[in-house]
Amino acid sequence: MNFDYKILIDTREKENRHIVDKFKTNNIEVDNVALVIGDYRIQTGTYIAPVVIERKGSLDELIGNLLDKDKDNEGNNRFIRELNRARDSKTRIILLIEDKDFYTKLLTGDYRSKVNPKAIRGMVMSLEAKYPNLSIVGVDKNTSASYIHTTLYYHLRQIMKEVEKYG
User: Fold this and answer.
1) pTM of the full predicted structure?
2) The predicted structure's pLDDT at residue 65
């Protein structure tokens, strides 16, 4: 199956030069746009696949997002609102933590936050239970670009196969 595509990168995504450089090295077309959900998406023609990758540079960044006290009227901070938007729009969201040892650090409390490790672990692990469209993945920073590209590409490819097969 052959199709043209590009990776959409949210304009607010910062400190991602290592990812953008790898995309350019591998001739992967990118477009910087304001995304409502996530940091990375994939598009072919005018179709944007219902899968996003939300990248966190570390477990500490994720914890900071979860503990953000700037909440809306319903008690949700920006990160939780984003997860709600993904769920409500039936979009699969992959939370990419750039730390291959993130789960070990989560278990051992090896992070800067002084919040009880059991509480943090419960907060993080309960996300997948609360949001069935969410997967949490930890990868080495050096492989982030490959993970993002490959994951988005194969999700789009599967959708294209199903469209071809079922119309």
Assistant:
1) 0.93
2) 93
